[in-house]
Amino acid sequence: MPGSVQVAATTQPGLDTDADTIAVGVFEGEQPPSGAPPELSQLLESGEAKRSHKALALAHAQGRRWLVLGLGGRGELTGERARTAGAAVHGRALEISTRTLCLQLPPGVSAELAGAFTEGVVLSDYRFERFKSPPPEPPRADEQPAPKRLERLLMSSPDGADGPDGPLGEVVAEAALVAESANAARELQNRPANDLTPTALAQYAEALGEEIPELSVESEGSAGLEDRGMGAFAAVAQGSEQEPALIVMRYEPAQSPPPGAPVLGLVGKAVTFDSGGISLKPGAKMAEMKFDMSGGAAVIEAVAAIARLGLPLKVIGVVGATENLPSGRSVKPGDIVMASNGKTIEVNNTDAEGRLVLADCLCRAVELGAERIVDLATLTGAVIIALGSTYAGLMSNDEELAGQIAAAGQRSGEIVWRLPFHEEYDELIKGTYADLDNAPEARKAGTIVGGAFLSNFVGDTPWAHLDIAGSAWDLGRAYAPKGASGYGVRLLVELARAYTA
User: Fold this and answer.
1) Which CATH number fits domain 184-498: 3.40.50.300, 2.60.40.1930, 3.10.200.10, 3.40.630.10?
2) Active site residue 355
């Protein structure tokens, strides 16, 4: 995306690079590396600099700006702590007008942790400025405005025998690519609904298909939904003047997948604006409902990232994009619709629209041959009450798939918490006049009930549902504090990697 920070790995110490600011990581009980200016040790001895996690202190030496970055105990450095430390040093670097930052890691830090530091910096560098006006007056010739974003990031590991062209360089480059893919999802999420319509989202995905080898993308509108018998998806879309879009992405890797690797299906809810329909939402914070397409954004960018990485795994992405608006044509409470697998659904709350869209999208993923399916959706407010923004809610009909997702969440920092299924939850979603009820009045186990509803549209295919309503925006992490978070992109890429290992 435009303005992205350029990232490279190096085995040169910071002083030997052309960086204007050098951040040196220091663990508890350890000293700055040999060759570092004595001012850094003096800061530590005086107590002005600390070795505790994310602590920062500034020094000027040898014509450079130096940041002492505390990393805490060596054994305590996880991927997520590396990301938050990277975010901390990024913020301080911009405060002192850094353009090229070199982050020099202590000896013994793995390439994987170097990748996590990279993610923290790159994610922190994202800004949504699509609709910002330029400054009224350009700076004077003798003035250089403070940068809003980094120009370059150098990840330095002087003891890294694998070098910038080996595993270190590969991991750092891939981490930067995946983080930029998450930032691209954030850009989609942050766009307002009058700009990012379902058609505009489909056009964006189609442009990715033209750009990336081995990736093909096609989309269909309301006529396609009708032809495919997608009555649930079409019911949500019928209230808007904007054409819906069923977006299908297919990634066929150039390299043959390893034996036993499944065809991975990724399904995303992309309601580009959700007013609630006839069951209208309260006006407060309704503007945030532009984020109701976050699951679709994550799927689009995750499939693109998997294709750019060239992972040897077949992937099918299905995204259902529509608006949910009240009008004389809108689906009404009490209406009965039929999904493409023949299941009939009582629409007792038009604000429970995401599960209607996903029902037909899940059926499509099964039809296209997906052998493992993961769907992502900002589905319920109940998941925010249960888990806040820390965890996404995970529900699954398959133990192996659920375990793979949980492990991918730990590696990516996009952690999940599994919620149970039980036959009693299936009883809650039985309809009175149709097979299923999209919004049982009892209001029990709201997040689980949403997942139980969706389980009716995958048959025997191993499937998992991720409710990301609490994590998709205003995440509160150091590298994604406000606005869109891009949640799910990094997790899905990690899941794909697990099937190619």
Assistant:
1) 3.40.630.10
2) yes
